[in-house]
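Structure tokens please, single chain.
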Amino acid sequence: MDGDAASAVGVGSNEDARLESLGYKPQLNRVLGLFSNFAVAFTYLSPMVGIYSLFVLGFGMAGPAYIWLTFVPLVGMLFVALVFGELASHYPVAGALFQYSKFSVGPRYGWFVGWFYGFALLITVAAVDTGVVGYVTALTHNWFGWNLDPGGHGTILVITLILLAIQSIVNITGARIMADVAKFGVYVEIVGTLGIAIILAIHGFHHGLGFLFSSQGAQHHATNAFAFDFHGSWLAAGLIAVLAPVYIFYGFESAGDIAEETKDAGRQIPKAMRHALIWGGIGSFILTAGLLLATAKHNPVGAAVAGGVPSILAQLPSWLQDCLLLLIIFAFFSCGSSIQGAGSRLAFSYARDGALPGSGWISRVNQRFKTPVNALLMGAVITVLFVVLVYINPGSNYHIWFVTYPAHVNALVALVSFGVSGIYLSFLLTVIGAIIARARGWQPEGSFQLGKWGWPVLLIAAGYLGAMFVNVVYPSGLSSARGLFNLDWITLFIIFLIAVVGAVYLLIGRPDRNVERRLERGGEAPESPPITAA
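Here you go.
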């Protein structure tokens, strides 16, 4: 055996030994290297999916200068990634946030973090997979002359089912296949961000670089593309416009969800998290700048809001537009595949601790593929149920106490509003858990440690997450600017509903007792008695 092979075996043995010290027998296939781990995290974050979905909202809300708001969530989440990297290095276990919180604070606390995070992942898969429908219908029209209605319930359901079936097959057949799709997705993201920006530049930008520093009157009611009134304050407009990049910069944590399939996980996962964010930020900035500079010479904001990103790309040759549609479709596909893969590992990890109904079945690992097939199938079924919610579309406003459900908004759109808020909530709870652990005297022992910077990083990460969570969920009214991102009280209502369902199951089923037994059998217990509900 040569030195490199011996080294790889040694590292794998160390990782498996660490896993066993935490109470878990290695069951998954440890085949992923740094680039594979990074690819899953990067394609989940997906600059292409985010920009092509949210560009118009950010641009219309605050004008071209909204591009600089990209750095707010990017820098904020880098601090979060440092916290998660230290936890992932110490606890290289599938399930990431659930496991970090369980070990940091206690079984019930960890269970609730996993509960919120799991719902957010499942909802995000539904959001991403239904988001591709418009691009598929456009491509089929160009190629076959089909006139599929992208807003039709049947169209949405059929296309989403086909996409979800392919994603499930990819993820079932092994971590290596999942990673190969993600790695190809990285190259697609490079072409779809840097490549498109270069092509637009060659074709000819309509604005100079100074355009990127202008607001185009977005802060004034008369010149705001959405007719919102920010009373002359660009900062007020920016407070809402920042939500466009906020909805992009997460997913890096999925590098920790596949920890048990990653070689030298304690060292590579923190790197993958940081690189996914940094390169995601670079890709997002380049693509956003390219689109902004290529907007129409006259009334650029109004034209972009009216026609969307396709109106900007319409200046390109038709064959190139079709190629771009293919790239976008694959970006959505690889993004959804990575999220589904991460979610299945969370469900597997959750069930392995006895934290879900039917845990014995959900936690089974296919002996041929070494993947949590049952967890994948369960997640796919739940995602389909979420997609079916497009059929619930009230014709008039529906009032539930002081909460108004708006007319002509299907239930899936309302549920998707929980996707980002649920992610931010679970992130915030995880960071709070890390603060509690450090206050109790916890000392990290992984390859990546924050050292003397631990407390400043934790506090900045918690501050950012707390502030942005409030900005995401604040119920400022259906007719407010924030209403384009958040349906007034609906998001908080969904958070409340998911919390109540979780609390009822926790009190009746007591899954936390199974988690506590697993914690006592295998592993590291919290330094102080775990926080429990009254």
